[in-house]
Design a protein that fits this description.
Layout: H1 18-34, H2 43-73, E1 87-90, E2 101-104, E3 106-112, E4 115-122, H3 131-141, E5 149-152, H4 159-167, E6 171-174, H5 185-189, E7 198-200, E8 205-207, E9 213-223, E10 229-237, H6 246-249, E11 260-263, H7 265-279, H8 281-304, H9 315-337
Parallel strand pairs: 5-6
Antiparallel strand pairs: 1-2, 3-4, 7-8, 8-9, 9-10, 10-11
Helix pairs in contact: 1-2, 7-8
């Protein structure tokens, strides 16, 4: 594109953006302006003009379009052409049974005795990354206060959320994704699971169910979508050769590979605390309230009153629309309770 690639506007390997293209056009204009009348018809001049035409009519408009799209996306990976604030998500209601993505919002609510005490609207499909923002929103509504007890399902049981709950000194009953599986006989009897390995604190090593030792290799940091950093410790078996269960235990296609496990000590400690909370007498009572509390409210608004989709577009308008539904729900609930 740039003749012998000797122009400075190539960018020296730097990412190309609108400013870089505009700067390239400016430099080409300067070179063209220095040409004499005789030189304005030579081959190099024609190539410069052709390059300028390509930059201004093709590359620059496309780059401006891409930058506008990136601005709309922000930290998301998709948006709807008809509602730039909406993100494509897999909906629970999937009539075609094909996992079709549809533009939408992630609605979070907090309830007490089936009254909505707070709500928040999110542009991320996963519940895990919404908990902190939702509680901070609730805190602003409740004039700086937060509920004494936080109850949530397994979709919220992440290290980041447990860390936040501990920092705020909130008593919580929040499941994690393997909470129910860990209670099954199949899980407990599966000696290939790292959770069932024996840990040697003195030597910082794990011993698998077949007596092989896994030594510590190194640590690495893992960043979540929210930017939260977790510390992962990697352990590897010294030698898995000769083990009759290697094919089931080692997933690598490399025949010389050994079993590796990835340990998040902090998350494991949080999960142990969560398990104690959930299995306590109070925890069992709190767990029984969650489906009655939150699911009943969603069921009433969606099932009994037909709120299946938002009628307005844009994040701020959607917040208002959902807020009106919550107010209406609370008013109906209050009216029924006073009859």
């Amino acid at each position: 594109m740039y003749l012998r690639k000797d122009l400075e506007e190539l960018g020296n390997g730097k990412p190309i953006d609108t400013e870089a293209i505009e700067e390239a056009v400016r430099k080409i204009d300067e070179r063209l302006a220095k040409k004499s009348e005789e030189e304005k018809t030579d081959a190099e001049t024609k190539k410069l003009k052709k390059t300028r035409n390509t930059l201004t009519k093709d590359y620059l408009p496309r780059m401006q379009k891409y930058e506008q799209q990136e601005h709309i996306l922000e930290e998301r990976n998709s948006y709807s052409k008809t509602d730039h604030d909406a993100t494509f998500m897999r909906m629970k209601e999937d009539h075609m049974k094909n996992g079709q993505l549809k533009p939408g919002y992630n609605v979070q609510i907090g309830t007490e005795n089936q009254f909505v005490v707070g709500y928040s609207i999110h542009q991320r499909p996963g519940d895990t990354s919404c908990m902190k923002d939702h509680l901070e929103e609730l805190k602003s509504i409740l004039h700086g206060k937060l509920p004494e007890n936080i109850i949530a399902d397994a979709g919220y049981g992440s290290e980041e959320n447990y860390d936040y709950l501990q920092e705020k000194k909130l008593k919580h009953y929040v499941k994690y994704n393997t909470f129910h599986k860990e209670a099954s006989k199949k899980w407990k009897d599966d000696i290939m699971k790292p959770q069932n390995f024996t840990y040697d604190h003195e030597n910082d090593e794990y011993i698998c169910g077949y007596g092989r030792t896994l030594n510590f290799l190194y640590e690495r940091h893992q960043k979540s979508d929210n930017g939260y950093r977790s510390l992962i410790r990697i352990y590897e078996c010294l030698n898995c050769s000769g083990c009759p269960h290697k094919n089931q235990c080692v997933k690598s296609s490399d025949p010389h590979a050994n079993r590796r496990i990835y340990v998040n000590r902090r998350l494991n400690a949080y999960r142990e605390q969560a398990r104690r909370n959930l299995c306590s007498e109070e925890g069992l009572r709190m767990r029984s309230l969650r489906p009655v509390e939150v699911e009943s409210v969603f069921g009433d608004i969606k099932g009994n009153h037909g709120m299946r989709r938002f009628l307005l577009k844009g994040l701020e308008k959607v917040k208002i629309e959902w807020g009106l539904h919550c107010i209406a729900h609370n008013m109906r609930k209050m009216a029924l309770s006073t009859e």
